[in-house]
Amino acid sequence: MGAKLLRRISFPAVTAYLLVGILIGPRLLNLIPVKIMDASDFVSNFVLGIIAFTLGANFRIEGIRAAGKPVIWISVLEAAFAWILVTLVMIAYHSLNNLPIHPAFVLGAAAAATAPAATVMVIREYRASGPVTEMLLKVVAIDDAWCLIFSALAITTANALRLGVFNSVVLLEAIFEICAALILGAVLGFALNLLSRFIMTVEEVLVIVIGFILLAVGLSMTLRLSPLLTNIAFGLVVANIVRNNELFFEKLRDIDMVFFLGFFVLVGANLEIHLLPKVGIMGVLYIIFRVFGKFIGVRLGSYISKAGENISKYLAWGLVPQAGVALGVALSAKALYPEYGDVIFTTITATTVIYELVGPIFAKYGLKKAGEI
Amino acid sequence: MNSLLSAGLILLLGFVGARLLKLVRLPSVTAFLIVGILIGPQLLNLVTVEIFAASEFFSNLVLGLIAFSLGENFRIDKLRQGMRQVMWISLSAALAAWLLVSTALIVYFISIKMPIYPAIVLGAAASATAPAATVLVIREYRASGILTELLLKVVAIDDAWCLIFAAMAIAVGNAMRADVFQLSIVFAGLGEIFGALVLGGVLGYLSSRLSKYVRTREELLVYTLGLLFLDVGLSIALEVSVLLSAMMMGLVMVNIARENYRFFEVLRSVDTPLYLAFFIMSGAHLDFAILYKMGLAGILYIVFRTIGKVYGAKLGARISNAPKSVEHWLGLSLAPQAGVALGIGLVAKVTFPDFGGYIFTIIAATSVIFELIGPLLTKYSLIKAGEILPSE
Questions:
Q1: At the topology level of CATH, where does A39-369 sit?
Q2: What distance in Å separates the CA atoms of residue A237 and residue B382, rounded to the nearest whole number?
Q3: What is the pTM (predicted TM-score) of this model?
Q4: Which of A92, A209, B228, B251 has the fewest Cβ atoms nearer than 10 Å?
C-alpha cells in the first residue's frame, strides 16, 4: 500500500518500503510486535541467501562466454574501483577522527554493488536501446556478484583487523574460510542435483529450492562461514549442472518479492534514525567516492577491453543506483560486529535512500547522452 | 543448530520423507506428520525453540490459507442445487458424532462415578473435522467427482456447526458444574461465528475493490498474503473464528468478481512449502506420552466419533437425495481431526478447572490417532468412491 501511494508521487519502490518501515517501526507508530522484530534476523539472512543464490546464476558458463570480455572487465573494474576508493577514503576519515579503521573495508565493499532493478526500470520506462543499454544490463547483472565476493573478503579482513593481529595465520584462516564456504556451496549444489531427480510436481521445486537455501545459510552460519559466498557457489553449481535449473530460479522469482518487501520494511524499521546526523560526513564521502570509483572503473575497463567510446563515457551513469545487495552487506556486517555495525548499517541505508532517489535520474541522463533514449 | 538450518531441514526432510513413504502408498500428509514426529523434541530434536515459538503464528496463517481457498468452492451460480445436500450432510454428520460420543461417554462416566459434563463437551469436539488434511489428500491424488466436491464444502461448513455445538456444550457443562446456565456463553459462540462472517465479508469486499491497484503477479502475491495476515490477525484480535472469517473472505471474493480467481490461483502456486512445514510442525507437536493417558474414554471417543460421522453423513445424504457414492463414503472421509477440536479442548481447559485438563488430554490424544489415520481413511474412501484414479 505504502509503495503504491509513494509511487504515485514517483518514488522508487525500495525507498517507499524503507520509509514505510521507518514509519511503522518501534520509533514511530510501533505497529510491529517484538516477535516480528525478533524474526528480522531470520528474514534478512534468508533474503540474503536468496539474493546470493540468484546472483550465482550469473556465472553460467555459457553465459559468461557469451557476455564476452568487455562485460567482465568493466564489471570487475567498476566494482573494484568503487570498493578501493571508498575504502581508502573511509580509512583516511576514520584515522583522522581516531576511530578504528576496520568498518572502512565493509563500507567499501558495499559500495561495489549496484541496483539492477532501478536501472532496468529506467531502461524499460524510456524504451532505451543500443550498445550502451545492452552492456549496462549485462554489467549490472553481474557486478553484484563481485560485490558479494568483495564483501566476503572485506568482512574477513575487517574481522582479522578487529582482533588486532594481522599475521599469516589470520590470512591463512581467512583463505581457508573462503575456500570452505565455496566447497560447502558446491556440495549443496550437487546434493540438490541428486534430489532434483525425485521432483514430480512443479510445486515441489519451490519446496526444494527454499529448503536448500535455508540449509545453505544455516549451515554456513553454524560453521562460521560466509553465507553470501556459500550461496553464490551454491547458485553457480546449480546453474551449471542441474537440468532445467531455470525452473528453480524462476519459481524463486515468483515469490521473492514477498520476502524482499518484508526485508526492506524490516530494514526501515531497524534503522537507527538518531544516528543519521552522526553519519553525515561519512555518507557524503561515501556517495561521492563511490560514483567516482564507478566512473574510473568503467573508463579503465572499456579501455582495456576496447569497448567503444560511448560505453566508456556514459555507462557509469547507469551504475549509480544502489539497493538491496548493499543493504544486505551492511546487515551481515551488523550481525558480525555489533559495536560498529550500527554506524555501517545506518550509513548504507541512508545513502541507499539518496542513491535510489537520484540514481534513476542519472541513469536516464547517461542513456540520453549516449543517444539511446 | 540455528533456526535457518532447522527450517531448511524441515522442508527437505519433509520432501524426502514424503517420497519414501509414497513407496508404501502413504499420503504425503501422513508422511509429513511422521517426519515431524521424528525430528520433534521427543526424538531427534531438530526443531529449534525459535521455530517452535513461531509455530502458532504459522499455523494460524496456514489454517487461514486453507479456509480461504475452501471459500472458493462456494460460487453462488454453481451452488443452488448442491447447497441443500451440503447443509444436511454436514449438520447430520456433526450432530451424530456429538450425540453418539456424548451418549457413550455419559454411560462410561456414570459407571465410573464421574460427573457427566465432560462427556457433553467431548462430544461437541468430536463433531469437528480437519479441513487442511482433507484438502491436501484431495489435492495430492487429484481426486475429482461429486464426493470430492461435496466433501470440500462439508469440511468448510461444519466448523460452524462445531463452534455452535461447542459453545452450547460448554454452557451446559458450566450449568451442570456450577448450577448456573450462562446464556452468554452460547451468545459468545454465536457471536464468534457471526463476527467472523461479517469480518470476512467486509474484508473480502474491500480487498476486491482495492485489487484494481494490483498490477503485476508479484504484487498480487504480496497483496493476497497481506490480506490473509490481516484477516487472521484481526480474527484473533477480535476473538472470532479464524477459519470462518477466512472462508467467508474467500467466498465473498470469488462471488464478487470473475477475475478474482487469480487470488486463489496465485496462492496455489506457492502454498506447498507452507503446508509441508505446517504438517511437519503438527507432527513435531504430537505428544505420544499422552496416548497412555486417554484410557477407555479415548477409545470410546474414537469408535463412536467414527460411527457417528459415517452414519450421520449417510443419513444426511439420504434425506437430501445425494448420490450413492456420497451416501456410502462421505462419512469416512471426514475422519481427520486436528486444530479445531484442540481449540475446543483449550477452551475447556480454561473454563473447567477440575476436569478441563482431562478433556484436553482426551481430545489431544484422539487427535494424534485421527491425524495419523484420518488421511488414510479419506484416501481410502475417495478410492472406493472411484474419485481417485487407480494409477495414483
A1: Na+/H+ antiporter like fold (1.20.1530)
A2: 43
A3: 0.81
A4: A92
